């Protein structure tokens, strides 16, 4: 589904990603862990096409398409979704209206007509129940005055509506208490469909207690320095990242 | 970000075409003879000619005002044509209207054929100096409502015109009001009798077509006790390199328990990307809430004109009278706007509300200028003002000039102001959900201006929204 080869990227002239290789197959859940400043957020920004990040070398292929040639909105329309670490507020635009625009833009891209209003609302209601989000929240301005938990829940709700093929959860656990974390993680798990893949970007273990990864990568200093099964999560939690840093230093 | 701004600065102005129609014009220049000529062409009574001449003589003693946050190039008033009229036969019915004129208004989305017209909207179509056609006149007349061109009102309802003309905006009011009072050509007249609710939206569509002409129209609206009317004006002009002057007057008189809603969609040609051409829009609009509990609502979406100088105002004279002002003013490229409102509280227990949303893009300058005055004897006046500015890019300017003159201690006046920018974060968030940058800007603007757009008559809200998006196409910052 997703093939990243020797990806180098920089921001404001500073190289952050220094040759990332990663392959994700349909249906897999990959966790990308790593210390602060390792390049985790840069990787998600590059995948989603944020302009500020410059790709200096490498390739990204998504379902056979060269992702780097597509503008951000087309990547989204191809089925890449990111749950933002810091979701923005858009005053005066309700979540429902925002999603209606998004859904119809995506449908247009795939040559489909706009969603009939009644069907759209029915679908919204189903997803609302699935994620357990309050109707009132969805009719308020997008993220305006939402608590941290509400914002993250709203991200997951948007994911439920847009049904991406690849979901990137960027530090979704940050700023959440344990109850909110559980709700958000349950939402993600309920939405999981065979054939769809997930990248969970996180610093800590706790989210991965609920969203269990198939593969765990450690990103450090712009490279993936370790890849293993889910047992790596526990090891990192117990030992921290220092031993990885030491390993990398020894290799050099 | 800068790339995006430069990539697409302005979309094409889609109303920029010129109608090939035989036009009767007079020679350029302004003097007493010209004033007399205009009056004679319109077959006006003596008192109206006198009104014009007094205004003209007064205008000659005045100087152009320069207090606004505007850079207005010198205007040569002798270089303007003060009367231009599309030639047409005596119209008895629809078939007599020149097909070119019909086609023009069709193209502007204003069908003048009653069968095809928007249901529930009566239209007075004004091109250059004259009214071309007023629809649904007979339907309205059945209820005693008068809706006709200003010239026609002078002929058929001279007493009404004489009673109200200049009572809200006297010709001495300001430079452009004096000029208009001297040379005004046509416009709309609305009279809603006592106790009548106007069953449809009334609308005037102003179109400048002829070259080198100024447009000076007058609108006079009278709502008697317990009457109601919703009125909308729309404006467009051809795309030309030279500037054209538009100086209009709107006067509204509202009696006891009556309500008038006055909406504007102003889309005069704004000039090109380099700031060449465009309309100078210098307008005086004022309503008098004369009766107890009378109400006036202003709702406007302003996207056009090279320079806008306009402050729709309300005099709250009747006890318990209410006025609301909702405005979205957009400037892009090199457009300049100095616009706002005045709320003059004179009666007791009067209330006013101001919601102004400025949007600036390109190299434009957008100023809000508003005045709230509470007279010495006006007890318990209330005002709430909210003035928001939204900036797109970093080469434009937004200014707010609120003036408060509170002479009565029982008044309660609140003022809130915010300035914000459309952030790259917001745009990217939308992109990430599959929404293009253009649509993202449209969505954000719609959200920002929603409070005002909601106040536009339903038939026009969608149009107004599209207009906002088109005016700002590409100007993301």
Please give a structural write-up.
The complex is a heterodimer of chains A (252) and B (477). Chain A starts with a strand and ends with a helix. In chain A, strands 6-9-10-3-11-12 form a six-stranded mixed beta sheet, with helices on both faces. Chain A has a four-stranded antiparallel beta sheet with strand order 2-1-4-5. A two-stranded antiparallel sheet of chain A has the order 7-8. Chain A is an alpha/beta fold and 252 residues long. In chain A, helix 3 runs parallel beside helix 6 and helix 4 packs across helix 6. Chain A has nine helices and twelve strands. Chain A has helices spanning 40-48, 72-77, 95-109, 117-131, 135-139, 148-162, 178-191, 231-239, 242-251; strands at 2-11, 14-24, 29-33, 53-62, 65-66, 80-83, 90-94, 141-142, 166-170, 197-202, 215-220, 223-228. In chain A, helix 7 (178-191) links the parallel strand 9 (166-170) and strand 10 (197-202). With 477 residues, chain B is of the alpha/beta class. Chain B is built from eleven helices and 23 strands. Chain B has helices spanning 2-7, 32-41, 46-60, 99-107, 137-141, 150-156, 158-164, 175-183, 424-432, 437-453, 458-471; strands at residues 23-25, 84-86, 121-127, 130-134, 146-149, 187-192, 201-207, 218-223, 228-236, 243-246, 249-254, 259-266, 278-289, 295-302, 307-310, 313-316, 322-331, 336-345, 351-360, 365-374, 382-391, 397-406, 412-421. In chain B, strands 5, 6, 8, 10, 11, 13, 15, 16, 18, 20 and 22 form an eleven-stranded mixed beta sheet that branches. A ten-stranded mixed beta sheet of chain B has the order 4-3-7-9-12-14-17-19-21-23. In chain B, strand 3 and strand 4 form a beta hairpin. In chain B, helix 3 runs antiparallel to helix 8 and helix 9 packs across helix 10 (437-453). The radius of gyration of chain B is 22 Å and the shape is globular. The termini of chain B are close together.
């Amino acid at each position: 589904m997703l093939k990243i080869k020797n990806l180098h990227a920089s921001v404001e002239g500073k190289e952050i990603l220094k040759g990332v290789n990663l392959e994700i197959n349909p249906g897999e859940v990959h966790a990308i862990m790593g210390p602060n400043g390792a390049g985790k957020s840069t990787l998600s920004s590059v995948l989603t096409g944020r302009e500020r990040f410059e790709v200096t070398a490498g390739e990204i292929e998504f379902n056979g398409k060269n992702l780097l040639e597509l503008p951000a909105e087309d990547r989204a329309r191809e089925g890449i979704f990111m749950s933002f670490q810091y979701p923005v507020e858009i005053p005066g635009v309700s979540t429902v209206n925002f999603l209606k625009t998004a859904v119809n833009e995506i449908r247009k891209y795939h040559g489909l007509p706009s969603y009939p209003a009644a069907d759209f609302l029915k679908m919204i209601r189903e997803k609302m129940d699935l994620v357990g989000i309050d109707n009132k929240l969805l009719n308020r301005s997008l993220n305006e005055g939402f608590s941290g938990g509400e914002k993250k829940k709203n991200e997951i709700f948007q994911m439920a509506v847009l049904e991406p093929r690849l979901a990137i959860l960027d530090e979704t656990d940050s700023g959440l208490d344990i109850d909110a974390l559980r709700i958000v993680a349950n939402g993600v798990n309920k939405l999981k469909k065979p054939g769809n893949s997930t990248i969970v970007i996180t610093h800590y273990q706790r989210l991965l207690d609920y969203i269990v990864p198939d593969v765990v990568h450690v990103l450090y200093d712009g490279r993936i320095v370790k890849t293993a099964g889910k047992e790596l999560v526990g090891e990192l939690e117990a030992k921290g990242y220092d031993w990885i840093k030491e390993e990398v230093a020894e290799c050099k | 970000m800068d790339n995006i701004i430069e990539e697409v600065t302005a979309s094409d102005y889609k109303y920029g075409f010129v109608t090939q129609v035989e036009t009767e014009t007079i020679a350029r220049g302004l003097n007493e003879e010209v004033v007399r000529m205009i009056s004679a062409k319109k077959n006006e009574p003596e008192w109206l000619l006198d009104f014009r001449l007094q205004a003209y003589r007064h205008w000659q003693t005045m100087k152009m005002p320069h207090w606004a946050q505007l850079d207005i190039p010198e205007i040569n008033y002798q270089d303007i044509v003060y009367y231009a009229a599309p030639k047409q036969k005596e119209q008895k019915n629809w078939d007599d209207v020149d097909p070119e004129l019909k086609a023009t208004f069709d193209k502007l989305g204003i069908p003048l054929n009653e069968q095809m017209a928007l249901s529930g909207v009566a239209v007075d179509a004004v091109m250059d100096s004259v009214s071309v056609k007023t629809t649904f006149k007979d339907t309205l007349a059945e209820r005693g409502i008068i809706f006709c061109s200003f010239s026609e009102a002078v002929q058929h309802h001279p007493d009404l015109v004489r009673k109200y003309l200049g009572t809200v905006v006297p010709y001495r009011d300001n430079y452009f009001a004096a000029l208009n009072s001297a040379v005004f050509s046509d416009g709309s007249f609305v009279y809603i009798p006592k106790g009548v609710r106007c069953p449809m939206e009334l609308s005037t569509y102003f179109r400048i077509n002829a070259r080198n002409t100024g447009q000076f129209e007058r609108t006079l609206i009278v709502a008697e006790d317990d009457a109601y009317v919703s009125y909308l004006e729309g404006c467009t002009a051809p795309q030309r390199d030279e500037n054209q002057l538009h100086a209009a007057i709107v006067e509204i008189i509202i009696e006891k328990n009556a309500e008038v809603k006055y909406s504007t969609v102003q889309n005069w040609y704004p000039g090109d990307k380099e700031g060449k051409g465009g309309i100078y829009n210098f307008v005086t609009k004022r309503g008098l809430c004369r009766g107890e509990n009378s109400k006036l609502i202003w709702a406007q979406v302003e996207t056009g004109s090279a320079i806008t100088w306009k402050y729709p105002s309300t005099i709250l004279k009747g006890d318990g009278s209410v006025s609301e002002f909702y405005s979205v003013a957009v400037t892009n490229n090199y457009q300049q706007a100095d616009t706002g409102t005045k709320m003059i509280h004179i009666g007791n227990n009067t209330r006013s509300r101001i919601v102004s949303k400025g949007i600036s893009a390109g190299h434009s300058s957008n100023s809000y200028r508003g005045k709230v005055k509470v007279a010495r004897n006006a007890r318990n006046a209330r005002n709430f003002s909210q003035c928001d500015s939204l900036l797109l890019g970093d080469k434009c300017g937004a200014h707010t000039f609120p003036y408060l003159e509170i002479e009565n201690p029982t008044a309660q006046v609140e003022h809130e102001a915010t300035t914000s920018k459309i952030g790259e974060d917001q745009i990217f968030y939308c992109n990430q959900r599959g929404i293009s940058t253009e649509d993202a800007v449209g969505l954000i603007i719609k959200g920002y201006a929603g409070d005002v757009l909601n106040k536009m008559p339903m038939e026009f809200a969608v149009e107004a929204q599209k207009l906002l998006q088109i005016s700002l196409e590409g100007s993301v910052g």
